[in-house]
Specification:
The chain is of the alpha/beta class. It contains 14 helices and 21 strands. Helix 1 packs across helix 4 and helix 5 crosses helix 13.
Length: about 525
Amino acid sequence: MTDPMREALTIRMHAEDNVAIVANDGGLPAGTVLPPGVPGAGIALRDKVPQGHKVTLTDIPEGAVVRRYNVPIGYALKDIPAGSWVHERLLQMPAARALEGLPMATVKPPVLEPLTGYTFEGYRNADGSVGTRNILAITTTVQCVAGVVAQAVHRIKTELLPLFPNVDDVIGLEHTYGCGVAIDAPDAVIPIRTLKHISLNPNFGGEIMVVSLGCEKLQPDRLLPPGSFPITDERDAALGPETVCLQADHHVGFMSMLDDILQSARPHLARLNARRRETIPASELVLGVQCGGSDAFSGVTANPAVGFCADLLVRAGATVMFSENTEVRDAVEQLTSRAATPEVAEAIVRELGWYDRYLDRGRVDRAANTTPGNKAGGLSNIAEKAMGSIIKSGTAPISHVLAPGEKLRRDQRGLVYAATPASDFICGTLQLAAGMNLHVFTTGRGTPYGLAECPVVKVATRSDLARRWHDLMDINAGKIADGEATIEDLGWEMFRLLLDVASGRKKTWAEHWKLHNALVLFNPAPVT
């Protein structure tokens, strides 16, 4: 409920906006007069306006632009008097910007001063990459083996992991791909390279262990061809990945399969256990940023703080990946203009154009995003949501672009656009494949999202959510809306927390509760 002792508070993102959002917990009742010093001062609310939702600051005639972030987020379907609640049913969404005639690498952001002297304690890998965790991951080639691998992982954790105290965890890379799919279709490259590159994530220390059924379409040597991955023992690289095949003739009964997997796991655990954390420059962090369960505060509090933190990391030489195709599509000119080079801008257009065509094939468009929860949180449509989403990329030039499932090269640093769908778990899966070793996830509605493969720092957009989900949210960005902290304050708090989490000095709530969602491979190829 609204606190009667607290004055009404509204937030306007730009001086040219003709709407503001209501910041008060519980919203504001009809008849509330906005006090002096806030946008819309003196206006009496004609409707009850929920928290995070928009109120008109002027009369908006039918057909006129409704403006937030100083961009059109819609056109009024009828006259909307000042003081009215603005929601999706009153707005016609703007058409998507065409992918032609865009500004290409036209903005030259000021050079950010380097940030030196910051380090974390991580695990250096043979290929030069760095892990923030020390995990044995068991790759699966097909969903059919998931149940057996789950049983094996349970036994490894119970029987073996206590013998190897420097290993953080053992996980099975479960997915729904591998058979019953058009595996030679052109787009099949996306799920195959995604799973391959996840197997090579820095948090797994270069240890490759595969469990196969035997008859599946995605054979181990197709997933991980000989010579495509590091060898950590004396085996010949020509042998391909070390594989436990469940259909092998020597397996007699279920228990022999489990015993074989446990025997295979022992040397991998021993090598991982021999590793120790060492002091490493912050430049080796690879941060993935994402938002889910978003609300109107996402673009006001949490995402701007993430953007400030992203700039700090880029200044420190680290890599920051932002993603979510449909949640940047309506800000495409901001992306192409910020590209470091025309070639990077062209790559952005190529990836977003490919995704437009993918949506067309499925007879959907970008309006399928937003969700009912997004709308309940005050986001009327994807045009409005995109403006708040892109803020988490900060201000640095976009230096590289990755197609879905591609892996970062060692020479690709700075701010990177990793093209992914906006679905939380598909985006997280693809960022893992790109080489993410640390993750930030902002939410306004709340979500227990987490990944077994990588620490996930959760950021609440609102203080009400942070209070209610006190043992799920790691940072409360709602303090910005409450006037208790600035965007810069929260950005620095996040930066320091990320160094502590990367070092293992602190665990996130998702790690504490072991909130580990399954991987979801993006598979645009047909199913047979």
